[in-house]
Amino acid sequence: MSTWNTTVPLAYQAYTSLAVPEWLNKGDNAWQMISATLVGLQSVPGLVILYGSIVKKKWAVNSAFMALYAFAAVVLCWVTWGYSMSFGHQMLPFWGKAMPALGQKFLIQQAKLPTTTHYFHDGTQESAMITPFYPMASMVYFQCVFAAITLILLAGSLLGRMNIRAWMMFVPLWLTFSYTVGAFSLWGGGFLFQWGVMDYSGGYVIHLSSGIAGFTAAYWVGPRSTKDRERFPPNNVLLMLAGAGLLWMGWAGFNGGDPYSANIDSSMAVLNTNICAATSLLVWTCLDVIFFKKPSVIGAVQGMITGLVCITPAAGLVQGWAAILMGVLSGSIPWFTMMVVHKRSRLLQKVDDTLGVFHTHAVAGFIGGVSTGLFAEPTLCNLFLPVTNSRGAFYGGVGGAQVFKQIVGALFIMAWNVIVTSVICVVIGMVLPLRMPEEQLAIGDDAVHGEEAYALWGDGEKYDVNRHGNGSYGNEMLETSKPPTGVGIDF
C-alpha cells in the first residue's frame, strides 16, 4: 500500500507510486541495468577496439565495423522479435513465438521468466516462476546485449575476407534461426531447461554456439588471401590489451547479472569469474614459456578469454577451488587444441578461423559446461534456482546424471549451429558472394569502406611531391618512390 505524505504535492506522490511500484527493488534494478551496460561495453567499445587492433592494419576499420554493425542490428531485431522467440510463449519445445517487445504495458510490468518443473521421488511436483523485482524493460535490455555479443564473437572467425553486405544479411538471420533456439531451449523454458541442463550465463548459449557457428561460417566463406594467412600481425598490441581489459572487467556484468538480483550468488559469480580468468591466463602464459621460451601477450589474452568462457556456465554454481581447477583446464586444453591439434588436423588447417574462436569459445565453452556437471555445488544451485535439486557429480547423489545432461545439451547446440549456419550461408550465397572480391582482399579497408585506420604514408603509396612537400628531400623521394629508413612501416 502506498503511504501518502501530506507535506508532498499529491501529483508528485501519484507519479512516484506508479513509477516505483511496491514490487520494485531499486537495488536489483540498478544492478541489472549496470550489468547490462557492462556487457554492452564489452562489445562497444571492448570488442570493437580488440578486433580493430588485433588484425592487420589494412583490416582494422572493417573488423571494427563488423562488430559495431552487429551490435546495432541485434538491438533492433531483438526488441522487434528476438526477445519473445527466446523468452516468450512456447511455439515448439525449442523455440518461442515471435512477437514485439515494444509495448509500454509489457515493458513496465514486473519481469517474469519461465517455470522450472521438478518432480520429487514421491511423484509430486513443485514449480517455481523466476520473478525478478524489476520491470521487463530491464530484462529485455539485459538479454539484448548477450545476443549482440554472441554475433560479435562469431565475427572473430570471419575477419579479413567476408563480404560486408553478406555480413549485414547474416546477422539478423543467424540471430533469428540460431541464437533464439539456443536461448529458448536452455534459458527460456525449452526442453533442455526443463530437463535440467545448467548454463548459468551462456557457456552454451553464447560461447559454444558462437565458436561452432563461426567455424562453420568460416568454412563456407572461405579463407583470407594467402598473403594475409601467412602474415597477419596485430596493428596495435597496446590497444588490443585495452579492448581485452574492457572484456575482462565487463564480465562482472556478464556473470554477475545472471542471478537477476544483487544477491549472494551474484557476488560469488563475480569472484569466481576473476579467479578462473586469472588462473587460465597464467597457465597459458606458463605453457608458452615452457614450449616457446617466450611469454606471448596475444597468448595471455587468449588464456584470459578461455578462462572467462569456461567459468561462464558455472560462475555462480561452483566454489572457489573449483574455479581454480576450471582455470587450469581452460588454460591448458584450448592451448593444446590450438597449438598442437590444430596444426595436425587437416580440417582445422583447411578452415580459416581468423581469431581461433573455435578454440577460445567452442572448446572452452564445452569444457566449462562439462565442468559444471562435475563441480556444481548443491547449496549454490539452490541459491540460483530453488527446486531443481541439481548438483555436480563430485557431490554424489544424482550428480552423475548431470554430466550426461551437460554433454547432451552441448551436442544439441553444436549440431543445430552447424546445420542452421550452413543453411544460412548457402542461402545468402545465392543472393550475393560471401567472400570479398580479390581486389578488396588485396587492398583492405580503403577498397571496402574508403577509409583507413591510420593515415601513414608508406603503406603502398607512391610519393607525391604535391601532397607530401617540396625541396630536395621531396625530389629524392619522387625519384626513388621509396620511403627513407625508419619511415616505412611493415603492417
Automatic annotation (TrEMBL):
Keywords: Ammonia transport, Membrane, Transmembrane, Transmembrane helix, Transport. Pfam families: Ammonium_transp (PF00909). It comes from the Eukaryota. GO terms for cellular component: plasma membrane. It is a multi-pass membrane protein. The keyword Transmembrane helix applies. The chain crosses the membrane at residues 30-52, 64-83, 139-159, 171-192, 204-222, 234-254, 266-290, 297-315, 321-341, 362-387, 407-432. The keyword DNA repair does not apply. GO terms for molecular function: ammonium channel activity. Residues 30-454 form the Ammonium transporter AmtB-like domain. Its main location: membrane. It is found in: Cell membrane; Membrane. Belongs to the ammonia transporter channel (TC 1.A.11.2) family. Involved in ammonium transport. NCBIfam families: amt. This is Ammonium transporter.
